[in-house]
Design a protein that fits this description.
Number of strands: 14
Structural class: alpha+beta
Radius of gyration: 29 Å
Order of helices and strands: EHHEHHHHHHEEEHHHHHEEEEEEEEHHEH
Largest sheet: 9 strands, mixed
Distance between the termini: 60 Å
Strand content: 15-25%
Helix content: 40-55%
């Protein structure tokens, strides 16, 4: 099944199959690759090491080719994982899930190599190509978890000292002194990515055994996280000791990298000890590969044709991902029962409103319930909110579930309690009570996603419901949300009552808009 060593023939015939294969593959994944590179060029973010790591990857690939002298061939068994990765990429494109597309880029490259090289040879390229995975922006999803872990570690460490403090969410309050927010940049994601990249690179250059690589990699992860925990703790502690006057508060980035650099000293000492183990000092076994004749050459080009055709076919079958974005959303022709609900000025509920990007149609109204208003209470003490944010069809930067679409601003609001709400027609809604961090005010919400005629309360299920819009009669997607803010009422009961009365006519009018 193998045919020829690259060094036995001229360069062009040797590399031509790879140029064709990866040329067709990059026709498919280029928009995703372009998005990844754009994140590398933001030098103040966590992925600014991307260009450097791309250069390192290229050098490692050349080094591996010279060392291994790989033999080209056609290994059809690897078409299965390659096709699975293509399906995952296509699903990510249909669902407009950028992270799913990004996470499949490296497996697609390795899958194409596996079809041409087979497992025995492609495993030598796993690290040279795989280190690019540490430059893919999917790691942002770890940030919130890392922030919470950092807060809990510092809660434990601050508890060892005579410091009066309180922790709420990602905020650490030094009583009578000030407050620190363990924000996205304090999660330690940058140190984690750099630590993982260094560990993978060190293992590729210095280790032979898989066990040594795993031990060193996990150790690097631990030290990277430890560096961030120490950094945050020292900044908070110095803020306490200096009454928030320490220069570390303004220059915490440089300080963090010095702490991270200090943790590299014990890390590389551990790496050196692993290099001296008996398993690492044993000689490398010789590898023998057979060489086939012309039949193998024909098989190679058969593989090239198959590998090249699959991405092209997927690209041709995918629906267009772009479309016109309206400069401003249109207005829904919706209304509530005017006899019961009186309008209020404004489109916010105690300062809260959903964050929705580029909807096609919007209906937002703040009202009061005439039946709930008494002589002793004014209409401003019992406010109601109804919002409908709709997309006629979903495309890039104009879709219902995306990174920038959020029910609330996390810097201002904190979810306090979740509860279930059911409409009169049996449609489930998700209830949540939000508390404002600055004032302690509470708003009670009930919402549901209405995608292609399907109701979902979970974002991921709503995302997968987009598939229906490509095969069904409806392409619309909407967020329908109700809110209550009141001083002297049972908030959850009030929002349930509001949904029971207002939900059916609102949904009926939305259906009329998109079905008729």
């Amino acid at each position: 099944m193998t045919i020829e060593r690259i060094h036995d023939r001229s360069v062009v015939p040797a590399v031509l199959p790879f140029l064709i294969v990866f040329g067709s593959l990059f026709l498919l994944i280029w928009p995703t690759v372009e998005g990844i590179v754009s994140r590398w060029l933001k030098f103040d973010e966590s992925y600014s090491h991307g260009l450097l790591l791309l250069l390192v990857s290229a050098l490692l690939i050349v080094r591996t080719i010279k060392r291994e002298l790989p033999v080209s061939g056609f290994y059809p068994l690897w078409l299965v994982p390659f096709a699975v990765a293509l399906v995952a990429y296509g699903l990510g494109d249909i669902l407009r899930v950028q992270a799913l597309r990004e996470i499949t880029v490296v497996p697609l490259i390795l899958g194409a190599l596996a079809i041409l090289f087979g497992w025995r040879q492609v495993k030598a390229f796993i690290i040279p190509v795989g280190i690019l995975f540490f430059t893919v922006p999917v790691w942002d999803y770890l940030s919130w978890t890392l922030q919470l872990i950092t807060v809990e570690i510092n809660r434990l460490m601050l508890g060892l000292f005579d410091i009066d403090f309180e922790v709420e969410g990602v905020f650490v309050y030094l009583v009578g002194i000030g407050a620190f927010e363990v924000a996205h940049g304090c999660s330690g994601l940058r140190y984690l990515l750099v630590g993982q990249s260094l560990a993978a690179l060190y293992g590729e250059l210095n280790f032979r055994c898989l066990r040594s690589r795993i031990v060193f990699f996990l150790t690097a992860v631990g030290f990277a996280l430890l560096a961030n925990w120490i950094r945050v703790f020292v900044i908070i502690y110095m803020g306490y000791e200096t009454n928030m006057e320490t220069s570390l508060i303004r220059d915490h980035d440089n300080f963090g990298w010095w702490v991270f650099a200090a943790t590299l000293v014990p890390l590389f000492l551990i790496g050196r000890k692993l290099e001296m183990t008996h398993a690492e000092q044993s000689p490398r076994a010789e590898r023998v590969l057979s060489v086939n004749g012309k039949s193998g050459y024909r098989r190679l080009w058969l593989g090239v044709i198959v590998i090249s055709a699959l991405p092209i076919l997927l690209l041709a079958s995918l629906p267009p991902s772009t479309g016109e974005i309206k400069p401003s959303p249109g207005s829904f022709d919706l209304s509530l029962n005017a006899e019961r609900y009186g309008p209020l000025f404004g489109n916010r509920l105690s300062g809260w409103k959903p964050q929705m990007q580029n909807p096609d149609l919007v209906f937002v109204q703040t009202v009061f319930d005439r039946e709930a208003v008494t002589e002793a209470s004014g209409s401003d003490q019992h406010q109601l909110f109804v919002g409908v944010y709709s997309y006629e069809y979903q495309r890039h930067r104009a879709e219902l579930v995306q990174y920038y679409n959020r029910l609330y601003d996390r810097d201002e609001w904190l979810p306090e309690r979740f509860f279930d709400v059911t409409s009169p027609s049996g449609v489930p809604l998700q209830g949540v009570t939000l508390r404002r961090l600055s004032s302690g005010e509470r708003v009670h919400l009930a919402y549901s996603y209405y995608v292609a005629g399907l109701w979902e309360t979970d974002q991921w299920r709503a995302k997968f419901a987009q598939v229906v819009s490509f095969v069904g009669p409806r392409t619309d997607a909407s967020l329908i949300i109700f809110g209550v803010a009141c001083d002297e009422c049972e908030g959850e009961a009030a929002v349930v009552d509001f949904v029971s009365d207002a939900f059916p006519p609102i949904v009926k009018q939305v259906d009329r808009q998109f079905v008729e």
